[in-house]
Amino acid sequence: MRREEARAVIDSRAIIDPSAKLADDVEVGPWSIIGPNVEIGKGSVIQSHVVIKANTIMGEGNQVYQFASVGEDPADKKFEGEDTWLKIGDNNIIREGVTLHRGTGSGGNWTRIGDNNLFMAYVHVAHDCIVGNNTVFANNAGISGHAEIGDWAILGGFAGVNQFRKIGEHAMVGGMTHIAHDVPACVIVSGSPASVRSVNMVGLERRGYSAEQIRAIRQAFKIVYKKGLQLQEAIVELKAMVAKHPEIDPFLQSILAATKGIHR
Questions:
Q1: Are the C-beta atoms of residues 250 and 170 closer than 8 Å to each other?
Q2: Pairing of strands 110-113, 85-88
Q3: Active-site residue among 103, 145, 150, 203?
Q4: Known catalytic membership, residue 127
Q5: Has 208 been annotated as catalytic?
Q6: Of residues 25, 76, 115, 128, which has the active-site annotation?
Q7: Given a cut of 60, is residue 182 above it in pLDDT?
Q8: In whole angstroms, what is the distance from residue 126 CA to residue 106 CA?
Q9: What is the pLDDT of residues 6-24, one digit of tens each?
Q10: Is 83 in the active site?
């Protein structure tokens, strides 16, 4: 299919609920189903065999590949059919077989996904999760309910994140790694059991961090992981560094925000 004069290209074999709102140039492939209370922004492409179940607000320029299930009921026993939602930003790539679930009433009603994310095949984002911007979820990565994924984070293939856990911005989780605690910003965690390896220097360089800024983040990392300090002692030292090195603040804040402990 191709766009012509900003007119919608909707295959005659697709099923579109009358309440759905599609921008003028949205493409929908054969045998896809767009359910009630769905909004899809301009420039988006919904390929064949996609189900967008209900109550989903999708921004502009998104690409959804075949057999994805978007806005499905949350897989949570507490869910009793209440009116809940999924919100997706702009320019996301949602590959084959991805499952993105709506929120639950007890969890705040919303699952929220930002902009420019890549969800590779068979990724799962559960109910009430928050995903930031520019993240990458490799094949079969999955996050449980109420998890939060920071901007620029990367989850390797088959990585799994427990419910209510947080992955900090610029963090990287290795393939087949089980995350049972929070992961601070800017670090690499991998292995079985999960182990903190180092600072994600390559990722930071790609994001435009200077050598001096990366050195400061590495120093902050050493305070937490190499000096043998109790965590509260390390936090005191990090707070003393922030005024001179504000680039370490995301690392510090992700530690302070941890409610389930951090991988250490």
A1: yes
A2: parallel
A3: 145
A4: yes
A5: no
A6: 128
A7: yes
A8: 14
A9: 567 999 999 999 999 999 9
A10: no
